User: Fold UvrD-like helicase C-terminal domain-containing protein from Polynucleobacter kasalickyi.
Amino acid sequence: MKFSEISKILIDQFNLKIIVIQGNKETLYCYGDKAKDLAIELNISLPADLTHSLKIPSSQIEKCEDHLKSYGYKYAILELHEFDLKTDFNKKNWIVTRTSSDEAIGITFDNKNLTGEYPRKRKTILETILLPTELSLDEDTSITLNEEQIQILTQIDNWLSNDNQIAIISGRAGTGKTTLLKYVVKLIEKRKKTLSLLAPTGRAARVITKKTGVQANTIHSEIYVLDSNSIKMSEDPESQQRAFEESDFSLNFKLKEEENLAQIYIVDEASLIGDSLGSQGDLNFGTGRLLNDLLTQIGVIHRKNTSTKILFVGDSYQLPPVRENSSPALDILYMSRTFKLTKLPEFYELTKVMRQSENSLILQNAEIIRSQINDKKNGFISLKFNDKDFYHSDAISVQKEVSNQSLANRIMITRSNQNAHGFNKSIRSRRFKGLDTSQPQINDLIIVNTNSSKYGCYNGDIYSIIELSERQIITVVLEKSSRFKHKPETVNLLFRDILIRPIEFIESNKFDKQVKVIENLLNSPENALDKSESIGLHVDWNNRTKLANLTVEEKKKDLLHDPYINAVQIKYAYAITCHKSQGGEWPHAGVFLEGKLEHESDFRWLYTAVTRATKTLSLINASYLEDIKN
Assistant:
């Protein structure tokens, strides 16, 4: 069969525009409507008679194929194979080995006729490559990728099959990280590779679950397990209470020992992942370095599971993790030096704002702030304001808006817990006028303050209260240790059973859950239980278990399942700190500025706060920011 005949069959059957056929080791022949365009783009000599094929030197084939993918051409590449069919001669076959139409892959032609699909037992073709633009998203077929996203997706496809284990996608607000991530997930499914989707917080995990349709988990739940052997437990209740009161007790979580199951890990909101040692407390995780522990557990470092890959996705201009100056999971030099990698992680940066975001005043101002960070300009900054999308406001107006808005639609962002507490108090007095606002109400908005694995509630998760029981007050006396022996302290612990619903799924009861909460933080400006309250939780548990006469091992098990000591610590969530807001987004946000913007950290804070809003944003206490007149 002639090359021109082969080309015509493929072009007609699969609506292709370019067919590349291997003639011999030195030359490939190109046919199709776009062959002339390809020649011009690659600076290849055109044939004198344009009805003839375009000859491509073998040295150009790799460049040619990359070009076909990057420019979204519909194409097929056929390679020459010879198979001994136990006849008097070797029969030549041309096989479709790479194509933008996966239906055409493996189709075989000989010098006589089309033989049909290439037999699987003889299949020696390369792994099929489905062109990124051919991927479909069932939930939103209107989404299309821009040229930059297509190029990065093609590079990700190559990364999936090379020997580099770490890759990073970095992109500022509005450049389409989530859109691209949907396609990456589809691509991994097409490649038939197992995937684990992770996020640093429960809220971020639910957001990306909703957007991709793939269940995401928190990093902590993926890599850590309680180390029961490290729990210091005494059979004597008095000795145990003394240990609690002296703070000689902690729960330590170690890395899971079992091998990871996924081939590809994707971590969204990677700017939140820290790698510096924190102080030891009641709950300790691994080495204290989350990035190190993640890479260790999945086998990228130390255990060296070379079949595992990890892709970090995030915005390097956001606030870095606590105690960090930058986001280590998005820093290729940090990872290379710290973990002694043999190869630099592959780095892809999204720089082009997506077409549907170009007119967003929020994103235009985010870009101004980002440029201020990039150029290391401290001090004065001017932003673009109007009366609708990005505007000055005052605290009272924003509090009214928040108290009247639908639960999932609006948030107020502050820099300090003290201000968040004050705003929450004012907002709730408006929202629940005439009710007892010293206690939570149905439809109240709450945020989880610390992880509770028993109830599957994680730091930063925001819920609406659907039902609630009466408050239960448990009084504990601290009196056994030297600290309290001569001056006993009485602690009141406030518990309640409530039915909660995540705000990401506010219209559905599918994810409702019944939990026990401790309310001591609800009306407090602090961001954690005080020392006496924390000790009191443990002493209360000790008081109840001593009545059951449990062994040490039984106590350890009970500690993990007891509803009181594992009660979810909550605060109100109408106003939250910027750190707590990371990983979430709201249609409308009010941002309260505290003092002037002077340092890079101030601008990172403002950038992070501003980019939490998707539709409108109001700035409070920001009259000193001048308007850039269009």
